[in-house]
Each structure stands twice: as structure tokens, then as C-alpha cells.
Amino acid sequence: MNLLEELIAYNKDFVSKKKYKEYTTTKYPNKRMVILTCMDTRLVELLPKALNVKNGDVKIIKNAGALITHPFGSIMRSLLVGVYELQADEIFVIGHHDCGMSGLKADSMIEKMKQRGVKEEILETLAYSGIEFKEWLKGFENVNESVAHSVDVIKNHPLLPQDIPVHGLVIDPTTGKLDLVMNGYEQL
Ligand SMILES: [Zn+2]
What we know:
Layout: H1 3-16, E1 33-38, H2 43-51, E2 58-63, H3 74-85, E3 90-96, H4 106-115, H5 120-128, H6 133-137, H7 143-155, E4 166-171, E5 178-182
Parallel strand pairs: 1-2, 1-3, 3-4
Antiparallel strand pairs: 4-5
This protein binds zinc ion.
């Protein structure tokens, strides 16, 4: 069985045995919060457990590094949808130690793309089209600074209501320990 077949077989069983019942909830977050965090595998279950959030409690947005690369990109849009349409009243940006985006070098990733068959011409075309390719692929050096920067971008976004606290935290991907980077209530 390949991975897809495995997933589909398991899913059939999950649904037929009504295992979904314990997860029934609504699309509105009970804790009226939205979290932006990293897609890291270690945080899949650890982060909700460490924060005591369950199905129905929170909207969670994930990407590589919990980064906002563009103030009008899909991450910022998701945060605004959370606030305006889904009753989220507080925003939490949660980065983590030992993140794959920490120290990510664009050059090394571009090298891997070439090894996997991406042609040099394609890279050149993208560069000529005005795409800041290396900038786009760049990670961050310091997770605290990166979280503080994301909080700043959100807090100063022209479309965010002034009364929404935006908190910044860093989580340990092994112990789940949280460190506070920015207390959003103090910025209101
Ligand atoms: Zn990460």
C-alpha cells in the first residue's frame, strides 16, 4: 500500500466508525484567537497540547517559519479573515527554536533546485521578471527578532483594527516551553 492508499483506507474506517464525533465543533474559535506558527513536524500535536487548545478553540495558520513575507499576501489575509469573519479577537505569533527557516540560505536551496532538474534558464527568467528570488527564499537569523518583526507587520497593518492585541512568543519544540517576546496588551 502506498501512502495515499493507506490514508484513504484509514479514512474510510475513521468515518464509518464515526470517530469524528469527539471533534464536532463550529468554525468559530471558542477562545477567540488565531495563531500563526510554523509547519514544523514537532509542533503538530505538541503546540496545541502545550497551549491547551483543542479542536474548535482556535484558528491556526501555518507556514515555514511563521513568517509574513508580504503585508498583502495570503498569511496576512488569513489573519484578517480570522479577525473580521471568524470572531478572533487576539493574534498570537509563535515561532520556535531550531526552526528550519533559521539560517536558511537561498543559495543552497537554489543549488538543490538545480540538482532536482530546475533549469538555469528558469532561474534567470524569474530574476529578469523582477522576482526577488533570493530575498523570497531567505530565512531568518534570530527567531526572537523574526517573531518581533512579524508582530510589527501585523500590528501596523492598515487593515487591522487597533483594538486587537498581537502577541509574540517562541516555543521549544521539545518541551513545549513558551517564552514571551511581545505582550500584545502592552501595545494597545
Ligand atoms: Zn520552523
